[in-house]
Amino acid sequence: MITKEKLKDYANKLMFDMEDSEYETLLKEFDVIEKQMELVANLDGISKVKPMTFPFEMEYVEYREDNNTRTVDYKDALSNAKDVKNREIRVPKVVE
Amino acid sequence: MNSKYEVTIGLEVHCEVMTTSKMFSSAPNNYNETANENICEVDMGFPGILPVANMEAVKKSIMMAMALNCKLPEYMYFDRKNYYYPDLPKGYQITQSTEPVGVNGYINVYVNDEVKKIDIHDIHLEEDTASLDHYETYSLIDYNRCSVPLLETVTEPCIHSADEALAFLDSLRRIFLYTKISEARTDRGQMRCDVNISLAPVGSDKLGTKVEMKNINSFSNVKDAILYEIKRQSEILDEGGTIIMETRRYDDSTGKTYRMREKVEGVDYKYYVEPNIPPYKITDELISELKSKIPMLQFERINKYITEYDLSLYDASILTKNIETALYFEDVISKNIDPKIAANWINTRILGHVNKEEISINDCTFKTDDLVELIGYINKGTISTKQAKDVFYKCLDENKKPSVVIKENNMEQITDTNEILNVIKEVIEENMELALSYDPERGRTVDFFVGQIMKKTRGKANPKAAMDLIKEELLKLKK
Amino acid sequence: MSYLDKTLEEISSALKNGEVTSEDLVKESIDRAKKYQEKYNSFVTITEDKALSQVKELDKISDNPLKGIPYAIKDNFSTKGILSTASSNILKDYVPFFNATVVDKLNNCGSIMIGKSVLDELAMGGTGTTGHTGTVKNPWDEKRLIGGSSAGSAAAVASGIVPFSIGSDTGDSIRKPACYGGVVGYKPTYGRISRFGLFAFASSLDHVGCFTRSVSDVAYILDALKGRDEKDMTSLPDDNISYSKNLTKDVKGKKLFYIKDIVDRENYKDSMDEELDEILKNFDGIIKNCEDLGFVVEAVDFNKELLKAIFPAYITISCAEATSNNSNLTGIIFGPRAQGKSIDEVMFNSRTQGFSELIKRRFVLGSYILQKENQERLFLNAGRVRRLIVEKMTELFKKYDGMILPASGSVAPTFKSETIDKLSDRYLLLENHMAIGNFGGFPSITIPCGLVNNMPIGLNITSGIKKDLELLNIAYAIEDTMNYKGQIAGGVKSE
């Protein structure tokens, strides 16, 4: 049974929060999708099918040869960061 | 150690794979002290990036899986492990969960002088995270390590002592080095270990509560941490307490472990197949190509040395610590040198030098041919074993061949019987009285004559030959 | 009539002959962009300065059909030195330092980017109303939406600002707004065009595609953008054919099919209205036209329950992948960083402030779908539906060269219209079938095929994987039976 509290917990695990009313809307949405997925679960022979991940089998797959390297300048890489010290991104102390 | 409890340990060992570029990007994979020098947009998870898997890392992971006697999957593919942490810029780590590159493997290791089979649950290929440097009030993020290829080896909970754990870690490290899959340098954090440990009363069929110790970066720390935990947990159990399922941190400055956080039962990482990396078929051709690249590993070599060359476990273990030494040894004995003599020379003199200089045996100027030559001179009696030692060090100091050193220093022993006999005749003439009084039951006379012979030949007469000959001559006088 | 309103082929030859300069063309394009911005809100950024300086560098670029031609690109493509927001507050100040592969390719052709177009926030939406800079309006009728998520790119072509634009399509995000805007919208076979630099929404469904005003223009753009990209492992090797040179209207004997249930009036008895009636009549007319062209057209049966499962399966897969794909948006490396005492607080606050409610709801849903205890029932079942549908389609494409269907069961809705019942047949069958193209990576195109209530409607055509040329040929032939080629909002035509 999905509750507002559970939804809040899910949201928090995704590192954000929502307004109370927003959780209400979400609860209704869950209801719709659950109903629709129930139809899916009842499709004939569904459990025997192998889930599909890629749109089609890629018969031509090349993994990258390990011969070249490429870097970007740290100035570019850090240009969007809001707090940079020396050559690194600074964040509040991470307590492990 | 407390014998009331059975200790059960499982290890998760992360080891960086040696490649030119990173696991999923073309940024260089080499250790760099300068922060954010080896980075590109893919490592840092900028919007729009896509992973591009490194074939070399994939090949090496398959090799390692085979070296650990694992079952290989039909296809190579990857999964996402989703969680938020500042060292994980994409918010997910690309790893292998559903089909690791190897499962259900094992290796045999020597624990002291007994063979122990360690079962491998799985080995999987993944990307490393960024490194965090902690300061007083803030942390800094360096992305150099981000997306470095990493092999995680997970054992079954089948280890029962610190010694076994250490023996396994050492053997695993040797395999990485033998196969050149990793440099496995613990001082650079290339090999790191998580330890899961639990204690249960002896005879209990249930495992005790598991405590996890994360990211221990040296083998000696692993040992100390395990010993500390056994002591700590035993004391708690002795007093009737309960062990809390938690993650602890080992502090090598105090030698103790400290609680980091209570372990939440089953964090859900929401694994699912990485959709940007199409599966790669592991063909039989690839498997046999890679198999041919795996050399005979330490454990097999130790056994071969013991059974075929009659070496002790101790000597065999030292010779096989790294493949370069083993190959040096094998090259020497392939030239008709007695394995025991070769082993003795390598393990004492040559490794002594190599270790002192902190060089590889391959960089030692005293090559296998030199050792073969030197041992040959001893066998022929050209020089004594004692002289050979001097020759060895002179060869190293002056970077010369043994033959040159022996010649230059006039060290060749007189082994020619006639030449020694001439000297003996002289010495007997000069000390006829003593010679005539020779009593074979008393050795003093012989010693005196040998001394005289050595004096006259300035030490170059072969002592054994001189001894044998003088005895013979003195006996002749008696008749 | 302006050269800007002509087809690429015509503009290109006018540029070559010196009838018009690229500078004039680009300036006019920028003028129109600015003029229409308040009305339709197509752009997050109009890149005037960059465009004008790029025009001056055109000498260095060898002749090709896209040289000197202005275009717009959706703001979820990475553009070096140019704000790239994905129409979300969480990226409202993000300026990338690298280009998407398609941007590099268009730069190399000498095409001139004149703006970054508005989308539904993070491409997750189909209305064009959820971007952080406001709603995109339909150039045919400002009271109506243009659809999304590639809303601004559709509106920019529909209103005549640019002859072509670049978009992305995860469910129907190019083909639906193309239908509502009366222009051509195309997404190729999965992997035909590199996704590198496209901000990922649902990686296994995401496609890069384009809007144009004619089918032949699509061929020119595809020629420029296709090919293997070492930065995208799923990109296909180049097929080494020229689409523009091989385009033909000779379709005699080619076979088309449509799915009976999707256009069966019986299924919509309760919700039938004049619009739908007109659209279905229009479709009947198209079948007739196709037969006249020499096509064989057949109706095929397709498990209706499976068809109704398309939308839930799409939502399930796309939300799940999106939750993971957008986990990089934390304010640490890029994007606005919120205050917080701890690193967790910083990430938490940045994300709470950066995402709109709709996005958060989708993420929670996606995360729920991926949870261990729900994966089997939700995520994996959706993947199973996907396989069933794709396998059935693949079978059909062995027999048929293409599938034709109405792109939508209505014209562009007004902003006020009630949201349609998401459990109804009309919604599940008529409004969501185009996601089939994303499930299987099939090439798919929408072309304008009529006007209902003075609003455009569209025909969707889909072919088997890697049959992009066959698809374009079918579209090229059908386009020729109608009078909507070159159509611009309000009925302006290039003829």
Care to describe what's here?
- Chain A has 96 residues and is mainly alpha-helical.
- Chain A has a domain at 4-48.
- Chain A has helices at 4-13, 20-41, 74-77, and strands at 84-85, 88-92.
- In chain A, strand 1 (84-85) and strand 2 form a beta hairpin.
- Chain A is flat and about 55 Å long.
- Chain B is elongated.
- In chain B, strands 5-6-9-1-10-11-12-13 form an 8-stranded mixed β-sheet. In chain B, strands 4-3-14 form a 3-stranded antiparallel β-sheet, with no helix packed on it.
- Chain B has 15 helices and 15 strands.
- Chain B has helices at 55-67, 162-178, 219-238, 284-291, 298-309, 313-319, 323-333, 339-357, 368-380, 385-398, 402-408, 417-430, 432-436, 444-456, 463-478, and strands spanning 5-16, 75-76, 79-82, 92-95, 102-111, 114-127, 131-134, 138-142, 149-155, 191-201, 211-216, 246-251, 256-262, 272-273, 280-281.
- Chain B folds into 3 domains: 5-288, no CATH class; 296-408, no CATH class; 417-478, Arc Repressor Mutant, subunit A.
- In chain B, helix 2 (162-178) packs antiparallel against helix 3 (219-238), helix 7 runs antiparallel to helix 8 (339-357) and helix 12 (417-430) crosses helix 14.
- The longest helix of chain B has 20 residues, at 219-238.
- Chain C is built from 17 helices and 13 strands.
- Chain C has an 11-stranded mixed β-sheet, with helices on both faces.
- Chain C has 495 residues and is an alpha/beta fold.
- Chain C has one domain (1-495): Alpha-Beta Complex (Amidase signature (AS) enzymes).
- In chain C, 39% of the residues lie in helices and 14% in strands.
- Chain A binds chain B through residues 15, 53-54, 58, 61, 63-72, 74, 77-78, 85-94, 96, and chain B through 19-21, 26-28, 34-41, 44, 52-58, 84, 86, 132-143, 249, 260, 273, 275, 278-280.
- Strand 2 (88-92) of chain A pairs antiparallel with strand 8 (138-142) of chain B, so a sheet runs across the interface.
